[in-house]
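ok so I'm stuck.
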Amino acid sequence: MRVDRQKGKGIMMMRQTRACAAVACLSITGLAQTDTAPGNRLEPVWDMDRLSALNDVRLTLHAPKQREVSLVHDAPWEGNVCCYHTVFQDGPLYRMYYRGANWDKKATHPEVVCYAESDDGIVWRKPELGLVEFEGSKVNNIVWDQLGSHNFAPFRDANPACPPEQRYKALGNDGSAKAGLLAFVSSDAVRWRRLRPEPVITKGAFDSQNVAFWDAGKQCYVAFFRDFQKGNARNGVRAIKTCISKDFLSWSEPEWLTYGENTPTEELYTNAILPYPRAPWIYVGFPKRFVASRTTPWDSSGGGGIPGLSDGVFMSSRDGRHFSRWQRAFLRPGLQRERWVNRNNMIAWGLVETAPEFPGAPREISLYSTENYYAQGPARLRRMTVRQDGFVSAQADEKGGTLTTVPMTFTAAARASTALLVNLSTSVPGQLRCEIRDAAGRPLPGFSLAECVPLYGDGIELPVVWKGGADVGSLAGKPVVLHVELKDADLFAYRFGAAPANREK
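replied:
not stuck anymore, here's the structure
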């Protein structure tokens, strides 16, 4: 994922990346999308397919900020191996599902599916649902305790044709390849039933968190699940497969995910892949990277020091099969000893918007990760945050550097002037300037670098201004290239859209 600072090498690497992505896109029938006006779409800079050159600018992966503990899994039906969390916002309500399980040399009680909810994604509660009996009582937050409880992973179905009684769907498995992936549906998100008795996906290992969702752009359901590449559970490499379906019952032949040419083979325990909410035509994933041979002296997990340490990585894709995967860790275990224990640091499936850390700041993206897994005492789930679009930035130091995009077109705003909007963070003396060029690389009159007013500050949608103003509507419908100069600044994303009434700083 490193982009060379030298111009020639940088351009070559970018072109190679785009070529690989194009081949991957064509290899899966029905998954390719056509960008009618790509300039109006939010373009996070981690999608290298939209960049043609970087000079003295590096793509920098940003670690999430650790926040409060969201849940302590201390109920009798939960335990120290509670995991496989899924999180999504459903109207004003935030929903969460996870496996309740405990391990002390062996499982101490059957696995169950638990449910939690929140009004803000920050403070969570475990409602007493009265649905499933556990040790003689229904006073608990269990929604399922039958086959499929090992890794039950729900989502809210956004398919407009979905009948109300199937508005919520899930895939689940008992932790074995033989059982396959079962399909479940619910009308209210808490009372579940099998969609059919037989498994809907049968070719895979499935002993992990297996996820699915409706992709509105592709008009199909997409699933990502575990299998073992070049072997089996004893000697294979944990890897990820994908397949698609129109009805959630009949699925295409599974295919392995592929990665960049120089990406090493690594064990990916979970995948946490989903459409990025602010740009759903781009998938993001947060696999748990597993190193089976490593342990720490204080790790007594499972009563026997079971080896295997994990961290979290970041990856993205535009076609759903070929991914760009960063080798630098997105989530390190850090200073907490219990995160340096067997199989910790699983990032939950789901990204949700939550209130900002500071009053008046833009809302943040929250994600969640396990800790104290397999350790002494109950497992915990901790919230983490990143700024909107803030996983990766195009970053330049105080000496400055430039970034150039591939050609794009955009449409003018209907009832407002049209501006180039950037997600930007600078120091006080730092800045961004932008030159808009034609497809041949020639600066367009009125939009040269010299005519651009230096932009500084910190905001999610800051308008770029030239001496003639911020309105770029005259360029609508024409292929344009952005040539961006950065000094002590981070550019996270950009798009063309309606100019805000007030300029952010």
